[in-house]
Specification:
The complex is a heterodimer of chains A (249) and B (87).
Chain A lengths: L1 H19 L17 H12 L4 H9 L1 H22 L21 H23 L8 H18 L2 H7 L2 H24 L11 H4 L3 H32 L9
Chain B lengths: L8 H20 L3 H21 L3 H23 L9
Classes of the chains: A mainly alpha (249), B mainly alpha (87).
């Protein structure tokens, strides 16, 4: 069965390679992809949104609907895994293979994680806040934050992390992130412009319309980061413990 | 095909065969934990490829998600099911 799948994949790969010869050259300024919308984004991003990194401004301002539904998809994926896997703690301890008990604490690992984790979280906040000027933004910052919590759960016990961040808080955070994103959109609608038209925020923030775009982008990036943090951690605790949140990796 | 179409063709010639070998190996190996680790290595090399194509935001995301969180999720799942793939 695997050989048939391998041969089919190889055939499709050869067909794709033959089609790729006709694609325009890498970085060709006369290709159709860089003639219509791209010059507008590249030239107008700084003066319309005050954000030099036009990847962030395209993601969060010009194409903000797509990012909102992407955040919703991440939220739905986390809820799906939760629905499928989460169950009450097993009464009988009949497992597939017996796991060895943890023999004492791992000195080097735990102390290294204890020293590294504040730097990791600070770096995640930096990536989130500096997404306007450097590569990064909300999604990357949220993933690094979530990975920090996963690191803590791997080095120490899962119960130790649950003393600091309960499961109910994690689920609440994942909903709050999507609500922040859609809430900013609805706020713009209430204040007079379109849904997710950030220029309307200048009325309550008291800045110019261009700076209101930049602040709106920061607001939705914070929403994306909160949801991604919560869902990454929730995916880990559901998958690594088999659903009963008792012991992890 | 013109080999000078990329930014650094030497980098392409060095990394792309490793990417292909890792992809084929991670699908044909029988132990699932090893396959998860090979997926992580594949993600690391794809992060380098994205950087070479000058897409730094994508490389950042690939490094954080693919080589960080996704490998851990695969490992966590592989330790809960039987560790040998059936075919």
């Amino acid at each position: 069965m695997k050989k048939i799948a391998f041969l089919i994949t190889l055939a499709i790969g050869v067909l794709l390679l033959r089609a790729a010869v006709d694609l325009p050259d890498w970085g060709d300024p006369n290709s159709p992809a860089s003639l219509h919308v791209s010059p507008y984004y590249i030239t107008k991003s700084l003066e319309e949104t005050a954000v030099p990194n036009f990847v962030t401004s395209v993601l969060a301002d010009y194409r903000s609907y797509d990012t909102m539904f992407e955040t919703t998809v991440i939220f739905c994926a986390g809820i799906t895994v939760l629905t499928l896997l989460r169950r009450a703690r097993r009464v009988s301890k009949k497992v597939i293979k017996p796991r060895p008990a943890r023999k004492g604490s791992d000195l080097i690992l735990q102390n290294a994680v204890r020293l590294l984790l504040p730097t990791i979280q600070l770096f995640a906040f930096y990536v989130l806040a500096h997404g306007h000027h450097s590569p990064g933004g909300g999604f990357q910052g949220g993933v690094i934050l979530g990975a920090g919590f996963i690191l803590l759960a791997i080095a120490y016990d899962m119960h130790m992390v649950f003393q600091r961040l309960r499961e109910k808080t994690v689920l609440l955070l994942s909903g709050i992130g999507v609500a922040i994103y859609a809430g900013i959109g609805a706020l713009c609608l209430v204040l007079g412009k379109n849904f997710l038209g950030y220029a309307a925020l200048s009325r309550i923030l008291g800045t110019t319309e261009v700076m209101a775009h930049s602040d709106g982008i920061l607001g939705v990036e914070i929403g994306v980061a909160i949801t991604v943090l919560a869902i990454m951690f929730s995916l880990y605790i559901d998958l690594a413990s088999g659903g009963d949140l008792d012991e992890g990796l | 095909m013109s080999w000078d179409a990329s930014y650094l063709w030497q980098f392409d010639v060095l990394i792309l065969p490793m990417v292909i070998i890792l992809a084929i190996a991670s699908l044909s190996i029988k132990d699932l934990v090893s396959a998860a680790i090979l997926f992580g290595a594949f993600s690391f090399l794809m992060c380098l490829m994205w950087t070479e194509m000058l897409a730094v935001d994508v490389a950042f995301t690939e490094a954080a998600v693919g080589a960080g969180v996704s490998t851990v999720l695969f490992l966590g799942t592989a330790l809960h099911i039987k560790r040998k793939a059936k075919d």
